[in-house]
Specification:
The complex is a heterodimer. Chain A is mainly beta. Chain A has no helices and 11 strands. Chain A has strands at 5-7, 10-13, 19-24, 31-37, 44-50, 53-57, 64-68, 74-78, 87-94, 104-105, 109-113. In chain A, strands 2, 4, 5, 6, 9, 10 and 11 form a 7-stranded mixed β-sheet that branches. A 4-stranded antiparallel β-sheet of chain A has the order 1-3-8-7, with no helix packed on it. In chain A, a hairpin with a 2-residue loop joins strand 5 (44-50) and strand 6. Chain A is globular, with a radius of gyration of 13 Å. The mean pLDDT of chain A is 90. In chain B, strands 2, 4, 5, 9, 10 and 11 form a 6-stranded mixed β-sheet that branches. By secondary structure, chain B is an all-beta fold. The radius of gyration of chain B is 13 Å and the shape is globular. The chains are: A mainly beta, B mainly beta. Chains A and B meet through strand 9 and strand 10 of A and strand 5 of B.
Chain lengths: 114, 112
């Protein structure tokens, strides 16, 4: 079965650079979530989209922005990168219209800021 | 304060043995409780998800229980395998699908 796809899997950037992470949800899923997981920490909810509209916002820094496109894929744009942004970034998708609580996580993008 | 506490913090058992992981929560309002398995550096993989009215749910060798009155859940793993070595995380969802309260996880190591 198709899973959530994230790209790239690994990314190395320098301070003050920008990065764009991509997420391709499971086909027909209508909701995408972004999480940030620092070393040894819980995943922190950043932002979510339902039917291409932002549905909820968590602890996403103002330097980050995200959107969901017409094909339901989502991109997380990160600017003015800081060392503390180094983390695993997970994307998850679900089928909200079916009333499902289940979130399916992607493999993550490991971002290293040097 | 909304919290999810898990015990033990870590556990080492021999291959083939059973084990039970605990989760206590103080989250309100409560929507559902999930157990995830997370390998180091990988995305969490859902094992079970239970709503208020469900007391037990199984997924292969994994069986989760939920007592909504005492706000406790457990994850029982039977006939453990080496591939079960991972962190097991209890997550409680509030009244929406967005705000998840994550436990710190139990690190399980299966030894041959």
């Amino acid at each position: 079965a198709a899973g959530v796809i994230q790209s790239p899997r690994h990314l190395i950037k320098e301070k003050r650079e920008t990065a764009t992470l991509k997420c391709y949800p499971i086909p027909r899923h209508d909701t995408v979530y972004w999480y940030q997981q620092g070393p040894g920490q819980d995943p922190q909810f950043l932002i979510s989209f339902y039917e291409k509209m932002q549905s909820d916002k968590g602890s996403i820094p103002d330097r980050f922005s995200a959107q969901q496109f017409s094909d339901y894929h989502s991109e997380l744009n990160m600017s003015s990168l800081e060392l503390g942004d180094s983390a695993l970034y997970f994307c998850a998708s679900s089928l909200m219209v079916a009333g499902s609580y289940e979130q399916y996580f992607g493999p993550g993008t490991r971002l290293t800021v040097t | 304060k909304n919290q999810v506490e898990q015990s033990p913090q870590s556990l080492i058992i021999l291959e083939g043995k059973n084990c039970t992981l605990q989760c206590n929560y103080t989250v309100s309002p409560f929507s559902n409780l999930r157990w995830y398995k997370q390998d180091t550096g990988r995305g969490p993989v859902s094992l079970t998800i239970m709503t208020f009215s469900e007391n037990t749910k199984s997924n292969g060798r994994y069986t989760a229980t939920l007592d909504a009155d005492t706000k406790q859940s457990s994850l029982h793993i039977t006939a453990s395998q080496l591939s079960d070595s991972a962190s097991y995380i209890c997550v409680v969802s509030m009244d929406s699908n967005y705000q998840l309260i994550w436990g710190a996880g139990t690190k399980l190591i299966i030894k041959p």
